[in-house]
Write a structure and sequence with these properties.
By secondary structure, the chain is an alpha/beta fold. The protein has nine helices and 14 strands. It binds pyridoxal-5'-phosphate. Pyridoxal-5'-phosphate binds at residues 12, 77-79, 104, 150, 154, 174, 176-177, 195. Its EC number is 2.6.1.52. Belongs to the class-V pyridoxal-phosphate-dependent aminotransferase family. SerC subfamily.
C-alpha cells in the first residue's frame, strides 16, 4: 500500500521538491527519447555533456557567479573540502584563520591543522554556539592565506548575517546548509563549497566555486583528485563525475527559477522560519537555542528543558507525520530543518502541532 509523503524535517539528506522527484521519475528509464536513463550514459557523451553544461550554466546564472570563478562538481562531501582547501590554499603563507561557530567548523579547523599554522580567529563555544561573533570579535591575521567560516551552523541553528571584512585575505566559506537559500555576493569570496544533500541534490555531489587565481598552488604531494587546478583543467571530468546527481541539481535549479530565483527563495524561507520562531517567541514551554539575531532560516533548534518531554514531543510528532525532529546529539532537544524544499504548509502544520503539544503538556 502506498504511504503518503511525510513532512521530513531531516538535517540532511533532506527533502527534495516533489516536482523534481516526479520529473526525474518520468525521465527515469528513457531520458528525452535517448532510450536510456541518465544513470546509464557515458559522462563523455554528447547527450550527457548537455545535461552537465546546462546545470553549470544555470547555477552560474542563478548565483550570478562572476566570470573569473570556476564551478566544480566534485565528490567526497563538504568534509573532504576540510582537507582540500588547506592543501591547495595554505602553501602561500603556511597560515590560515578559522572561525569556529559549530561542529562542522570545528571539524574543518581540526583537519586544517594537519597542513599549516591554523589560528582561531573567533569562537562561539563559550555560549554553546548560540550566537555568531560580530566583526569586532574577529582576530584576523594579516599573514593568513585565507579566512574560513561556516555560513550556517546546521547543528546549532545559527547563521551568519554578514560577510566578514577581511581586506585582501580570501574568504573560504562552507555553505553546505544554506547554499541557494538566498542571494549571495560570490565576488566577496575566494572559495565557496557545499555538500549537495541539503539544498541541491542527493548526497555524493560536492559543489565548489573558486576564484581561478587561487588554484594552482597546492602542496606537491596533493593527490590529483584533490588539486583544484586539475579539476578546473578537466572541467570536473578528470574522472567520472557524480553524473546523476548533477542532473538532479539541474532539475532543482529549474525549480528554484520557478520559485522566483534566489530572491524568491529568500522570501519563501524567511516566511517559513518566521512561522516557527513566532511559536517559540510566544511559548512558555519551548526554549529556542539560538540567540535571536543569529537565528538560522534553515535549522530551527529548540527544547523544552526536560529530556523526557523532548522525547515525547519527537515521538508524538513522528506519529503525526513530522519526521526527523530529534536534535543533534551535541545539542539534544529538537531541530526542525526547513530547507528550500520544505513547503510552507509543512511548517504551518508543525507550528499547529507545537501549539497543541504545549496546550496539553503545561
Ligand atoms: C552537512 C554539513 C557538512 C558535512 O557534509 P558532508 O557532505 O557529509 O561531508 C559540512 N558542513 C556543513 C555546514 C554541513 O551542514
Amino acid at each position: 500500500m502506498e504511504k503518503t509523503r511525510i513532512y521530513n524535517f531531516a538535517a540532511g539528506p533532506s527533502m527534495l521538491p516533489l516536482e523534481v522527484l516526479e520529473r526525474a521519475s518520468s525521465e527515469m528509464t528513457n531520458y528525452k527519447g535517448s532510450g536510456m536513463s541518465v544513470m546509464e550514459m557515458s559522462h563523455r557523451s554528447k547527450i550527457y555533456d548537455s545535461i552537465f553544461q546546462d546545470a553549470k550554466e544555470k547555477l552560474k546564472k542563478i548565483l550570478q557567479v562572476p566570470d573569473e570563478y570556476k564551478i566544480l562538481f566534485l565528490q567526497g562531501g563538504a568534509t573532504l573540502q576540510f582537507a582540500m582547501v588547506p592543501m591547495n590554499l595554505i602553501p602561500k603563507t603556511g597560515r590560515a584563520d578559522y572561525a569556529v561557530t559549530g561542529n562542522f567548523s570545528e571539524n574543518a579547523f581540526k583537519e586544517a591543522k594537519k597542513y599549516g599554522e591554523i589560528r582561531l580567529a573567533a569562537t562561539s563555544a563559550d555560549k554553546k554556539h548560540s550566537y555568531i561573533p560580530p566583526q569586532s570579535q574577529l582576530a584576523l591575521d594579516a599573514e593568513a592565506s585565507y579566512f574560513h567560516y561556516t555560513a550556517n551552523n546546521t547543528v546549532y541553528g545559527t547563521e551568519w548575517k554578514y560577510v566578514p571584512e577581511t581586506g585582501n585575505i580570501p574568504i573560504v566559506c562552507d555553505m553546505s546548509s544554506n547554499i541557494l537559500s538566498k542571494p549571495v555576493d560570490v565576488s566577496k569570496y575566494g572559495v565557496i563549497y557545499a555538500g549537495a544533500q541539503k539544498n541541491m541534490a542527493p548526497a555524493g555531489l560536492t559543489l565548489v566555486i573558486i576564484r581561478e587565481d587561487l588554484a594552482g598552488h597546492a602542496f606537491p604531494y596533493t593527490p590529483v583528485m584533490l588539486d583544484y587546478a586539475a579539476m578546473i583543467k578537466g572541467d570536473s571530468m578528470y574522472n567520472t563525475p557524480p553524473c546523476y546527481n548533477i542532473y538532479i541539481l539541474g532539475l532543482v535549479l529549474d525549480w528554484i527559477e520557478s520559485m522566483g530565483g534566489l530572491a524568491g527563495m529568500k522570501a519563501h524561507n524567511e516566511a517559513k522560519a518566521a512561522v516557527l520562531y513566532d511559536v517559540l517567541d510566544h511559548s512558555k514551554l519551548f526554549i529556542p537555542h539560538a540567540e535571536s539575531e543569529a537565528r538560522s532560516l534553515m535549522n530551527v533548534t529548540f527544547r523544552t528543558g526536560r529530556e523526557e518531554l523532548d522525547e515525547k514531543f519527537v515521538k508524538e510528532a513522528t506519529a503525526k507525520g513530522f519526521s526527523n525532529l530529534k536534535g543533534h546529539r551535541a545539542t539534544g532537544g529538537m531541530r526542525a530543518s526547513i530547507y528550500n524544499a520544505m513547503p510552507m504548509e509543512g511548517v504551518r502544520a508543525l507550528a499547529e502541532f507545537m501549539k497543541a503539544f504545549e496546550q496539553s503538556n503545561s
